Structure formats: structure tokens, C-alpha cells
Amino acid sequence: MMQKTEVCAKCQAKLPANAKFCSQCGVRVGADRGVRKEEFEISRSQLLSRVRKIIHEGNIRRIVIKQEGKILMEIPLTVAAVGALLAPILAAVGAIAAVVTNCTIQVERVE
Ligand SMILES: [Zn+2]
Predict the structure, then answer these.
(1) Ligand 1 mean position to 18 CA, how many Å?
(2) Which of 19, 50, 71, 109 is the most exposed place for a label (fewest CB within 10 A)?
(3) Which residue has the higher pLDDT, 82 or 75?
């Protein structure tokens, strides 16, 4: 039986099958594997609280705020970034909420 061996893109360590993280350096394996996109319409009054809630749910890779197909804001989220950047992110989302009526939030969730 043929066995497929994956190696870490960063440190080249051999990875066990279906590994989610490299055991050597901790980098995430297969960044696009298991990413699920969700999209929902939201009104301005709910925007900020909804984004905050989504961030706190964790395992989010990216949040995109759109209006009529146009991207207003893109928030790439890494575990490291969330703590330090939460306040400026929420401030920017608040600024968007002040000028839009309805918008769409697209969430990329990591399984
Ligand atoms: Zn590695």
C-alpha cells in the first residue's frame, strides 16, 4: 500500500497522516484544507457585536466585510494577531458600521 508522506512547508519535518500542525515547529499544515466559508447579511447595528462574537468563537482564518459585492474590510486572523489587534480591528469595524446600512460578512472558518 502506498503511503503518502507530507512534510512541513516551513521546517521540512515529516508529518504523521492528517496532522493539523507540525510537531517540530508548530506551523499549520495545509492552510487551505478544511476551510469553510460562511456568508451572512447583517445590519449595521449588529455588525460590531457580531464581528466581536465571531472573533471570540476562535478557529477563524479570515473575516471579510462586503457591501454589494465590494470588499470594505478584510481581517486576516491568526491566533497571534487576535489578542494584540482586537481593539484596532473593532475600531475599524465600528467605523464601517457608521457609514453602511446593510452589509455582508464572509467568515472563513477552519474546521
Ligand atoms: Zn515544521
Answers:
(1) 14
(2) 71
(3) 75
Residue 98 Cα to ligand 1 middle (Å): 43
Where are the chain's structural domains? Answer: 3-110
The x, y and z cell numbers of residue 4, run together, are 503518502
Percent of the chain with pLDDT over 70: 87
Span from the CA of 20 to the centroid of ligand 1 (angstroms): 11
Q: How far is the CA of 84 from the centre of ligand 1 (A)?
A: 24
Report the alpha-carbon distance of residue 37 to residue 54 in Å, rounded.
13
The three-class DSSP label of residue 68 is coil
**CB within 8 A of 108, min separation 6: which ones?**
35, 36, 37, 60, 61, 62, 63, 64
